[in-house]
Design brief:
217 residues; mainly alpha; two-stranded antiparallel sheet
């Protein structure tokens, strides 16, 4: 089992694209990777204990267990969550640069950060297929790309899992999550997605990874 994990981690490193920005995306120091070593160490190496199911940081009293109080009280429709980092400065600026600044070269960086997080979770059950959260037609036309799909593409190649871009479809347009208060966000996304027609047989018995750029608690 250990050999299989090491072999998988090597394949991850080899499969990730090498064509990343030539300066650090956070401090702009010239280099050969999207993040310089100091920024990676400062903002991505120190990972707080997280809930296995929702990835929310655990409180001091929850450190002894694997699940947060919310996940223990409320059944979830998913098994586990892997995150690259918390949506706070300066990491949020990277997300905004990809999402609204058309800096698509950051997508492989986020894929790499997710792979790094996966490698730290040795007990994580690897999915068998992958999908990305789709954008509505209007927002896709305005932006020109789906940032979740742009992250999922290099991630799929890195961990050798098939990506099915059309597996999830939007059933209706929604307001931007960032424009809503926290208590309205769940209602905004309710019944907003559906499985692609005739995809039931395709997903039956599969362990599915769903990729998005921002996870709202």
């Amino acid at each position: 089992m250990l050999y299989r994990f090491i072999d998988w981690s090597r394949r991850c490193a080899l499969r990730l694209p090498a064509t990343l920005p030539t300066s650090c995306a956070l401090c702009s120091i010239p280099g050969t990777s999207a993040l310089c070593a100091p920024c990676r160490g400062q903002f991505f190496s120190r990972r707080p204990p997280r809930c296995t199911q929702c990835a929310y940081p655990l409180t001091h009293g929850e450190h002894a267990r694997s699940f947060c109080g919310n996940c223990l009280r409320t059944p979830r429709a998913f098994d586990a969550t892997i995150v690259a980092g918390d949506y706070s400065a300066p990491i949020d600026h990277l997300v905004l640069a990809l999402k609204f600044g058309n800096q698509l070269a950051l997508a492989p960086l986020f894929a790499q950060l997710i792979v790094d997080a996966l490698l730290r979770e040795r007990a994580f059950a690897m999915p068998t297929i992958m999908a990305a959260v789709p954008l509505g037609e209007k927002r896709l036309a305005e932006r020109g790309f789906n940032q979740a799909l742009e992250i999922a593409r290099p991630l799929s190649k890195a961990i050798a899992i098939p990506l099915l871009p059309q597996l999830i479809q939007r059933s209706r347009e929604t307001a931007m999550q960032s424009s809503l208060p926290p208590d309205a966000r769940h209602h905004n996304m309710r019944d907003a997605f559906t499985l692609a027609p005739q995809a039931a047989d395709l997903v039956r018995g599969q362990h599915i990874a769903i990729v998005d750029d921002v996870l709202t608690k």
